[in-house]
Amino acid sequence: MGCATKAEHAASAPLPGVGGATAVAGGPPRCKLVLLGDSGVGKSALVQRQCRGTFNPDMTVTVGAAFLAHTLSLPSGVAVKFEIWDTAGQERYESLAPLYYRGATAAAIVFDVSSEKSFARAQHWVAELQRHASQRPLMVLVGNKTDLPAEERAVTREAAAELADSNDMLYIETSAKTGSNVAALFELIAEHIAAPPPT
Amino acid sequence: MDEEYDAIVLGTGLKECIISGLLSVDGLKVLHIDRNNYYGGQSASLNLNQLYERFRPGQQPPPALGPSRDYNVDLVPKFIMANGNMVKILIHTDVTKYLEFKSVDGSYVFNKGRVEKVPATDWEALKSPLMGLFEKRRAAKFFSFCQQYDEKNPQTWRNWDLSRMTMHELYTQFGLDVQTIDFVGHAIALHQNDAYMMQPAMPTVLKIKLYYESMMRYEGLTSPYIYPLYGLGELPQAFARLSAVYGGTYMLAKPDVEVVYDEAGVAVGVTSEGETAKAKFVVGDPTYFREKVRKSSRVVRAMCILSHPIPSTNDSHSVQIILPQKQLNRRHDIYVFCCSYTHNVAPRDKWIAFVSTTVETSDPQSELAPGLQLLGKIDEKFVEVVDVYEPVEDGSRDKAYISKGYDATSHFETEIHDVMDLYRRITGKPLDLDKEDLRKRQESQ
């Protein structure tokens, strides 16, 4: 009897929830990517564009899919497995939980290039990230909505690049609507994760 | 906030967050509010600075204790039974993807002045120093019976009707002695007193079976328990996220939030900062319903920082020790819970140990002595006595669905019953955990 039960033991499952950004034996390196930024800057739209190739202008506040797994293969042949966390609307009333930031490998801090306010708030999100993340994640400042007409643009590329520089962030401009630079954003992160620059 | 919801949930303790998540998944429009600016309420995990603010206001933690942020000290520490309903809810809702769990090294029991590993299976019984040679064989037969018992298969019943036969009678059938019965009832079936002995045997046999199945549930378990990395405070956050993902709205830091009742005394919404949100019903922990709850007991807890594992636990990094009431001439068991840096709740080479029990005297702190004595040298100790409240009504009349406070036990089995009961009271249907889980539902879409 004792032996028979031991055999059952071997058939039992591994513990649930083995998350984290560590490389699984044989698999591609994993990257927990968290999206930050005010409501309405296009965080979910960027993910939708990258993972599903779609853009929905009527997308309201994120509901239903706030965790996406996405594997990206780089031209070098290296692949990165993204676990992308969206805010699920919890940023609206400043109620993002520390759990959200926990173990993040990378963070995309998104603002709307037509909104001075959302840009001013990017600094706030950088501070929140530094307060909660135990290890400093790779940070990318993302200026989204470059498809808008030039006269609506409220934040200059120079001002954004300067903010990124002073906080040791990368900077990229995207349009989730047209898809411009969205793949480049994810590749940029993947390249840095797969081969971190020498320190 | 001036809006209408199906449900408003007050307090972001674990029970409220599970309920909020389940209701959002069911398609209800949920508003979830906490008076504090952090998640978790009573189920939060504190860093060292927060711990000092709470227990030693005005004092700085000594540098020798290490960095504050490395601490995640539960206010209400509990281990999770690996095959229990808590894990079933985690898997059912796919919340496991937000969390990481690690097994708990050992489950121990205090017996005749010594700390011994709890034998939970027939073969462990044969090795256990808790019993003499003949008693080992009797216990092995008893465990074997419990492991194989199946309510639906009469062949496993041995012609006994466990829905009528008392547990005392079943023990007698196997000829188990008093010491064995003591650790089986308290450290395996997790009863808090001996009232179960005169009740039908079935629930206890199923609890013993659950303990055994939990040990078999995951690879390499050496106890039936698991525990999340970074502490229990991660759980409410994960369920809050589930609720948000399914449309729940979260508002923290509303210190003045209050329930609004109509003329008939029925809860119809909440108010805060001059705004009112309406809802069909309101759910919350007892602190939001002071006039609708009564004190059910008092719990005393000591939180201790150690620089070593608890002696006689085989250098375990995480361990539960149950001190059955009878061993101490008490009416309630004492629980010891210990975790370390391997579960990311303390800096390297530090252990966090908790000793808790239900208060029986006017000197609660000294009631913990038998548990504290097991810990060896204690670097720092914080003691708290908390009143535990329970709702007076079930919510059907006043639409105020109130959870119970957290008890002294160091495991989740009693708390999860309260969550399931709350869900049934609110929705009128039992929580069906065998239903297709959310991950599968999403994949099939």
From TrEMBL, chain A:
SMART domains: RAB, RAN, RAS, RHO
Alphabetical list of SUPFAM superfamilies matching this protein: P-loop containing nucleoside triphosphate hydrolases
Keyword Kinase in record: no
UniProt keyword list: Nucleotide-binding
GO molecular function: GTP binding; GTPase activity
Alphabetized Pfam families for the sequence: Ras
InterPro entries according to UniProt: P-loop_NTPase, Small_GTP-bd, Small_GTPase
Chain segments annotated as transmembrane: none
Protein name from the UniProt record: Ras-related RABF1
Organism listed in the record: Chlorella sorokiniana
TrEMBL record, chain B:
GO CC terms of this entry: cytoplasm
GO biological process: protein transport; small GTPase-mediated signal transduction; vesicle-mediated transport
Coiled-coil residues: none
Pfam families associated with the record: GDI (PF00996)
MF (Gene Ontology): Rab GDP-dissociation inhibitor activity
Sequence similarity: Belongs to the Rab GDI family.
Name assigned to this protein: Guanosine nucleotide diphosphate dissociation inhibitor
